[in-house]
Amino acid sequence: MQEVEVKYLVRDKPALLAALADRGIALSEPVRQDDQAYAPSSWRYGMSKRGVPFARLRTQAGRHVFTVKRPMNNELACLEHETVVADRGQMHGALLSMGFTPTVQIIKTRRVGAWGAVTICLDAVDGLGTFLELETMAREDEAGAATQERLHKQVMALGIAVERVAQTYDSLLRAANVPEPSV
User: Fold this and answer.
1) What positions does the domain CYTH occupy (predicted)?
2) 160, 8 Cβ separation under 8 angstroms
3) What's the CA dihedral at 114, 118, 124, 128 to 10 degrees?
4) Are 33 and 58 spatial neighbours (Cβ–Cβ below 8 Å)?
């Protein structure tokens, strides 16, 4: 399956929360996520991400999740594989042994909700601001861009001012030159 998402910078969080509440969309309590992003050692920022596997180690409430994403149509339409790992440090070492290099650390507070079959994430990303993500799963052979357009129309139906973003958080942090948090 392919995870397809759209992402928006939120300038008016109260307006967004009101628009979601008007549609009966409830968000979870906030959770803190500590994500370490990894790229193949041969890849550099500025190169295309399409077809390249990227890894992530996420810790949330003491639970560690390992994810690999391979962008298909663009950075936000990816084949995804994910599993829980027992030891973040050992998985970090395994990633280094497999030829991955740590890129940036992403620290955020996330609230999650559902809008039909679509997952909504409201993220407060340290050093970047507040973002709205809509994500859904699509068949591997589906065009991610078409699914993204459908998700975009859902966001526009909220009637709030948002700024669409085409990059992942790691690329946004890198572009903003946000200092790397200590691991």
Assistant:
1) 1-175
2) no
3) -170
4) yes
Task: Give the pLDDT score at 179.
Answer: 54
Distances (CA, A) of 182 to 9, 36, 71: 26, 11, 27
2-176 domain in CATH 3.40.50.720? no
Kindly report, residue by residue over 172-182, the tens digit of the pLDDT.
Answer: 999 987 555 44
How far lies 179's CA from each of 106, 107, 126, 175, in Å?
Answer: 11, 12, 11, 11
What does the DSSP 8-state code read for residue 57?
Answer: E
Do the strands 118-125 and 54-60 form a parallel or antiparallel pair, or are they unpaired? unpaired
- Cβ pair 120, 132 in contact under 8 A: yes
pTM of the predicted protein model:
0.91
89 vs 128: CA distance, rounded Å: 27
